[in-house]
Amino acid sequence: MELAAKHFKASAAKALVDVQLQKALGNVEKGFIGKRQKAAAALPEFDALRDNARDIKNHVLAHLDLYLEEYERKVTASGGIVHWAETAEDARRIVLEICQKAGARTVTKGKSMITEEIALNDHLSANGIEPVETDLGEYIIQLRGEHPSHIIAPAVHLNKEQVEGDFRRVHTHLPEGRDLSDPVSLLGEAREVLRQRYFAADVGITGANFLIAETGTSVIVTNEGNGDLTQTLGKIHVVVASIEKIVPTLEDTSQILRVLARSATGQDMSVYTTFSTGPKRADDPDGPDQYHVVLLDNGRSAMLGTEYQDMLRCIRCGACMNHCPVYHAVGGHAYGSVYPGPMGAVLTPSLNGIEETGQLPNASTFCGRCEAVCPMRIPLPKMMRHWREREFERNLTPLTGRYGLKFWAFFAKRPKLYRLAVSFGVPLLSVFGGSSKRFRSLPFAGGWTRHRDLPAPEGRTFLQAWAQREALKQEPAQ
Amino acid sequence: MAARQPRVGLFATCLVDLFRPSVGFASAKLLQDAGCEVHVPVAQTCCGQPAYNSGDRADTRAIAEQVIEAFEGFDFVVAPSGSCASMLKKHYPGLFAGDAAWEGRAQRFSDKCHELVSFLTDVMMVRDTGASLDAKITYHDSCSGLRELGIKDQPRKLLANVRGLELQEMKDSDVCCGFGGTFCIKYSDISNAIVTKKVVNIDASGADMLLAGDVGCLMNMAGKLKRQGSSVEVRHVAEVLAGMTSQPPIAGSGK
Ligand code: SF4
Asked: Which CATH number applies to B7-122: 3.40.1000, 1.10.10, 1.10.3470, 3.40.50?
C-alpha cells in the first residue's frame, strides 16, 4: 500500500465522522478487551509467561545470526529452500520467480502481514498471477480493494451489511435470492467459493508466526483452517517471514503460544496451530512438493542494537491496538501505514523513516495501556517518545509547536522569570474567567476550547498564595 | 521524644500552581495532618513533561536538574499528580543515564518522590483523613498514576472513610480521558472523541461529583462536562480528602 502516514490528521478527521466506521470500532472495544482480560485472569502464571516470552525473544535477538544460520541448516536438511531477502523488492522478486518457474496462474494466500508489508499481491497481479486471499477477513478486503485495518482482524472496520453487498456484487454466479443475513451464511458462502480456488491454485503462500531454529519448522496459527489448506493443497508452499520470527526450540514456541492467543482474542489457543517442516516426504500422504522460505529483513537488522530493538519482540497479537484509545477513535486505516496502532507507531518509522511517518508516534496520549497489555512487554510509549526525540533533533517537528515549546522552556528553566510572568498572567486570566469560572473560547487556546471549556484559574498562583500565607504566619503577634 | 517530623518538599505542579491553588493548600494540609513538615520551594516551575514528551531532551534535562537541586534536600518529594510524580520518579533517572556526575544523584532523588495520595496511604500509613462530604462521587484513574505508579486502591481506601461520601464506579474508569498533555491540543479532534466517551461514562455513573488525582485530566473532563451542560462537579481528590471544598469546583458549578 502507499504510505499515507503524513495525512494522519486529515484521515483521522474523516474517520471520526464516519458513522459506519465508528459503529464497527465499537466492536473492537467491546469484543477484544473483555475476552483478553478473562483469559489472562484465568491463568495464574500469565504474567510469568509474559516474562518468559520476553526473555526468549531477547535471547534470540542477542544471537539472531546464530539462530538464523541454524534455522537455514535445518530447513535445508529437511529438503526446503531458504531465500534471503534484504528488501521488500528482493522478497517480491523471489516469490514471483518461484511462482513463474512453477508456471503458476493463481496462488492462494493465508493471512500474512508480511506480504502486506512487501505489497506482494499487487506485484503478483501486475505479473499476471492472481493472488487469492483465503482468510475470510482478508478475502473481504481483497474484494473491496482495501488494506487490513487491524493486524489480526483485517476487516474489523466493516459491518456485515457491507460484506453482504460485496458478496452479492462479486459472487454473481450464485442465486440472487439467497439469504446472507447472518455472519454464518456469509462464512458459508466464502468457504464455498474459496474451496474451488484451493484446488485450482498452484502455489500456497503463508506467513509465519514462528520459525523454529531447532527443527527448521514454520508455524502459523489460524482460526479458520484456511492456512492448512493453503499450504497443503498447492504443489508449492512458500513461507514469507521476517527474520525476527525465529525462536530457538519447540518448547519456546509453546511458551509464547500460551500468551499469543490469550492476548489476541482471549482464546486459550487459536483453533489451528500448524507446523510445517520441509516438503512432502516419500511416505507422507499429502503436502507440497516444494517448500520455500523467504526470509525478509527490510530494515529489521538495522533496529538491532538501537533503542528500537525491543520492537522486534512483537508477535503481532494486536492487543496494543485493541486497547488503544486513539485506535478506538480513528481505526486502522487512518494511520496510513501497513501496521496501525501503537505497534505501528513504533515500527513504521523504523521501516519507512521518520520523515514521512512522524505523525504516528506523536498521535498518542501515552496512556500506557498498550504496554500494560503487550504480552512481550514492549515499552511502546517509551519508543514512541524516542521517535519524537529523533524528530526533534532533526528539526522535523512543526515550527509553531517548536517555537511554542522553546518559549515555554525558556521560562520553565528560569524560575524567577517564570514567577514574574505568571504572577501577572494568572490573575488576569482569572478575572476574565468571571463568575462562570470557565472560558467558552480563548484566542490562543483554540485547540482546547473548540471542543471543551477551559477552566479559569482561581486567582493568584499557588506559590504566591502560599508565600503570602507563610509571611502572615511569621508576623509577630501584636 | 517524638521522632523528627519528615520534611516534605511539595512539588505543586505547574497546573496546580497556575489553575488550582486549592489543591496545593489541600495537599499541604493532608501532609501536615499526617505529621509532615511541609515546604514549598519557590524555585519550581514544571516537571518538564511538555518538553520531554515533545522529544526535547535537552530542555527536559535542564529542567530536571533544577528540580533535583531545589528538592533533593528533603526527606520526601510529594506531588499532587500521578503524571508529574511519575515524571520525577520514573523518568528523571533515565535522563541522566551514563552521566557519572548526575546518575546517582537522580536515582537518590527519584527514591524520595511520591504521588500525594499513595504517599499518605503507603508511607505515612494514613487510613482516615477525618473529612466528611455529602456527595455521590465517581473516580477516574489517571493513566500515569495507575499504570506507572500502581495507584488504584489508595484513593478509594481513603475516600471510603470520608463520612457521607458514596463512591459510584463508572464504566472504564481506567481508560484514558484523552488529555495527554500537548496531545489534546495537537490532536484536538481525537482527544475530543476520547473525552466524549469518558463523559458519557461519568454521566452514566449517576455520580454528582467527579474526582481524580491529576489536574490536567480534571480540567479536560471538567471542560467537556461543562461544554455539554452537565451539572457534575469536578474536583481534585485532595480537596475532598482534606475537607477543603469551599472553592468553586474546577470550571465552576452548575450547568
Ligand atoms: S506490540 Fe505487543 S501488544 Fe502490540 S502486537 Fe506486538 S506483541 Fe502484541
From this structure: 3.40.50
